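Example record

One chain of 131 residues, shown exactly as stored in the release files.
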Amino acid sequence: MIQEDYVSFETAKLLKEKGFDVYVRSFYDADDMPAQHNEALWDWNLNKENYRFSAPTLQIAMKWLREEKHYYIQVMLDGWACGDHSGYYVVIQKTDSDFEMMLSDAVDEVFYQTYEEACEAGIKYCLENLI
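Predicted structure tokens for this chain:
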């Protein structure tokens, strides 16, 4: 079964700090690190609460960065990156100007084993270094 991947607890805290205000169904409590999911039929903006952090999927966080902060995160597959098997790297582009600013050929020159690891790294890099 394919399941959604959510941002890490650390990234959820950074998103809240940077103004993430999208209604989602998953969250972290400040004292309880595992992600919890709201079973209700509506989404919440849990970043408005003091001791909770909205936990969006990786794709929702990337869309928020693209639409609200104008940073496009592209995860690329490189078949030669990790020897005998493929690796992923991240390219981040600014989208609100006439020129494309390549911030990094690979975030910190790191190759990631999975697409999801690369997404998380790109989101965290934007939040820590660009916003």
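Notes: The beta strands are 26-29, 36-37, 52-54, 71-82, 85-94.
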